[in-house]
Amino acid sequence: MGNHRVVIEPHTTDKNYWKDLWKFRELFYFLAWRDLLVRYKQTAIGVLWSIIRPLLTLSVMAFIGWLFESNIPEGTPRLLLVAAATLPWTFFSTAFSESANSLIANSNLLTKVYFPRMIVPASTIIVCLVDFLISFAILIVLMVVYQYTPSINMLMLPLFLLLALITALGSGLYIAALNVKYRDFRYIVPFIVQFGLYISPIAFSSQDIYQSERIPEIIKWIYSMNPMVAVIDGFRWSILGTNDLYLPGFFISSAISLFLLFFGIYYFRKTEKSFADVI
Amino acid sequence: MSKPIITVEHLTKSYVLRHQQQERYVALRDVLANKAKSLFKGGTSTQSTKEEFLALNDLSFQINEGDRVGIIGRNGAGKSTLLKVLSRIITPTKGKITIDGRMASLLEVGTGFHPELTGRENIFLNGSILGMSKKEIQAKFDEIVAFSEVERFLDTPVKRYSSGMYVRLAFSVAAHLEPEILIVDEVLAVGDAAFQRKCLGKMRDVAGQGRTVLFVSHNMAAIQNLCNTGLYLKKGQLLASGNSNDIIHEYLKDAAEAHSIDLVDRKERQGNGVLRFTKVFLRDAQGTTVQALQSGSEGSICISFENRSGGALQNFVFSFGIDDEYGNRITFLNNELTNQVFNQVHQKEGEIQIHLPKVSLQGGHYSFTLFSSVQSEIADYIIDAGSFSVEDGDFFETGKIAPSGQGNFYMPHQFELK
């Protein structure tokens, strides 16, 4: 019984937090499982939605890229180039927006049961990850159609997926915690997602930005501060293997992803204790 | 048996009430606006509108292993806040709590139930939310299903369940928790009477296994039934703790005194309002207002009313329902039963007097419900309008009174031996 001793005091940082998080891992699975089960209940085409949505984004973005004659590397089909960006972007945008709203959506749980709150946004992201894996079929089909053989770089893909996960989790945690207190973020989130679609290299490629002579240096720096730039460039590099990574931009962007994760966790943990009071 | 399992020291939880804002959450706009304002004014612009509210005020107590603790108090006394702090949902402002055991809390029936999921899926989800492991749930699955009596609908989404089925399933999951400490908040007030009895039985089993139970309820009978010790909270403070019967007695005594029998401002009432009850009071045989009736003596219950119809009240039926301390209806006074329906009531203000030639209630506290109808339509209906006391008196004129705990009534009787 002694190992169940719990001391509750104000303002003490919980030393057992990470241990608790591990102890509650089953709840984490169950919440993810619930969201997966519920996700496409009472829809006519069900899980096809996780393919249709990225597919539509893909067609529009490819069309825009074609319209503005954005550069494509020699021998790479445009659809494949855009697909390699659309999939991680769709993952990020759904994971980010759903985790940002997850605490509010589960407010009945927060006010009635104790568990490490981080489980809620984290389990939401898992659901989006499953969606992403399903939508990966699009890329495979395109590769078969274009008879495109993936290079050895493909082995690095999980690493970039992890980077996407980190970005989504970090920003999701931060916004979720803010959202509990300031409901304004319910309106800010869709805006960030919409905005991100245009400033991330989806319709175009990062080369268009970095190699352009019309764009001032400062804009290029700002551009590379978008954490999704590293994710998307990484995806393209590992899937298509042709275009080289612009390393300085890549590192800035990944550093910002990591910073987002740490800051997200920090802020979440700092405010977590008052969630049930204010939600 | 007497090892402390929960120790609470100087527990305080305060909330800051901001009188400016209506919403519980803040809009970023307001924060920015206030920040901007305070830039110009020097930072103290919002201070004056803050007020501290102590939901829990310096509580200290100990709960021993195997104790079954009833927590009582009026609405807003801090009972639920206390349970939430103990269950780690909210953090205290001051103080320290030490808990030595695996704890599960049940603050609501069916927390996390998802309407789209089937009964089977919800058992797993809810069980996990309440802190059971998947293995535990699997092991107890059949038992849970049998207890809930919804076998046939196990694979139907719970949104198609009747509310009774929903509650039964939810409680069944909770009833199969096996923590060392169980915290339960007023969840027995659901379901039909038969299921409630079953739940109470289950709770008693849990308590009987030597587990520690903390139980909040307004149902004194349930607390009396289940608990051996009690905590009485009032306005965030611990007023008394100890033997549950003593605590209940104290609470009820307080409740009877606190109950204002002035009904003018009463909001929870039903009816079309052609008539309003305004006051209830007691008179003794001489007609003087008294604090309590006395068993065996003459007295009357008086109810003032206001005629708001602008004319005469026709066919005015009046009932006075009397409940015991546990909320059970024990008798009913009614002017139809006595063939005294008031046919024409012209006066704007009046007083109904119910004469009791010989009060046959035993000593104790009783609450009452007022009902009136005018021309067969409910005019004013106040459930649990207030309470009154009866002092034990010499009903049989023998100088002897019934020992306490022997029911509510005296019945005239004679003995004969043949």
Describe the structure.
The complex is a heterodimer of chains A (279) and B (418). Chain A is mainly alpha-helical. Chain A has one domain (22-278). Helix content of chain A is 71%, strand content 1%. The model of chain A has no long low-confidence stretch (mean pLDDT 88). By secondary structure, chain B is an alpha/beta fold. Chain B folds into two domains: 4-14 and 56-258, P-loop containing nucleotide triphosphate hydrolases (Rossmann fold); 275-391, abc- transporter (atp binding component) like domain (Coagulation Factor XIII, Chain A, domain 1, Distorted Sandwich). Chain B contains eight helices and 19 strands. Chain B has helices spanning 28-41, 79-86, 119-129, 134-148, 163-175, 193-208, 220-226, 244-258; strands at residues 4-18, 50-64, 68-72, 94-100, 103-106, 181-185, 212-216, 229-234, 237-243, 275-284, 289-290, 292-294, 299-307, 313-323, 329-334, 342-345, 349-356, 364-374, 377-391. In chain B, strand 14 (313-323) and strand 15 form a beta hairpin. In chain B, helix 3 (119-129) crosses helix 5 and helix 4 (134-148) crosses helix 5. Mean pLDDT of chain B is 84; it is low at 43-47. Chains A and B meet through strand 1, helix 2, helix 5 and helix 13 of A and helix 1, helix 2, strand 4 and helix 3 of B. Strand 1 (5-8) of chain A pairs antiparallel with strand 4 (94-100) of chain B, so a sheet runs across the interface.
